[in-house]
Design a protein that fits this description.
Length: 223
């Protein structure tokens, strides 16, 4: 996956791995970290999430992003009208589908998308790639810790070693999420060589509020 840039910028470190910080909820918080060399910023449009952003607030949040930062909109089994309404206002975004959306659903909006896979066993990533061949990337995340948990942002990693061989076999870019932080980011990259790392709770002071220092530490760990 090295050298394949999923987002607008060209990677924030010598390994050329890109970094997406997911779950922003506050304009001042975005402003406080906007000068840091992140590559993408994620916004969660899933009402059950503690990082949920109502669609009518997206305008002001996305406006705070530097041009080099790709806005990513995360949906979980959304109504198609909701996705259409948001993407009409923001055609520049990358979509992220984190539920059981079909390939037909994901491609219906005419925008690039990432498809999340809740990795449980070897073969999950390759099966997802075969099912979603037109995805911009496959995003590997851990399964929800329990049946009532919200997908993503749970601070839990899956067993990366189980995904090692098939990660190297993927044709599509791989984005790695789940339980990432400054302490394990370099090891995760060294093991799976993803195109991008997607971090949320690992760089937060509280849900939806990112820590400038923790983001700096995360980026520093990749240099």
């Amino acid at each position: 996956m090295q050298g394949r840039f999923l987002f607008r910028s060209s990677g924030s470190g010598p390994h050329a791995v890109q970094v997406k910080v997911c779950g922003f909820t506050d304009e001042k918080n975005i402003s406080s970290v906007a000068s840091l060399p992140i590559d993408a910023a994620g916004f969660v449009l899933f009402r059950k999430s503690s990082r949920y952003v109502p669609s009518d607030r997206l305008d002001s949040l996305i406006r705070m992003l530097p041009e080099r930062v790709t806005p990513v909109l995360l949906f979980v089994n959304p109504d198609p009208d909701e996705v259409s309404a948001v993407t009409r206002r923001h055609p520049e975004v990358l979509l992220q589908f984190h539920g059981e959306e079909t390939p037909e659903f994901c491609r219906a909006f005419g925008l690039p998308y990432m498809k999340a896979v809740h990795f449980e066993k070897p073969g999950d990533l390759l099966r997802a790639e075969a099912r979603y061949p037109d995805a911009a990337a496959i995003l590997a995340d851990c399964p929800a810790p329990d049946s009532g948990a919200v997908p993503g942002g749970n601070g839990t990693a899956f067993d990366w070693e189980l995904a090692r061989s098939e990660a190297a076999s993927l044709t599509l870019p791989l984005v790695l999420a789940g339980g990432l932080n400054a302490e394990n980011a370099a090891a995760a990259y060294s093991l799976l060589h993803p195109a991008a790392l997607d971090v949320s709770s690992g760089v937060e002071d509280s849900p939806g509020i990112k820590s400038r220092q923790k983001i700096q530490d995360f980026l520093g760990a990749l240099r």
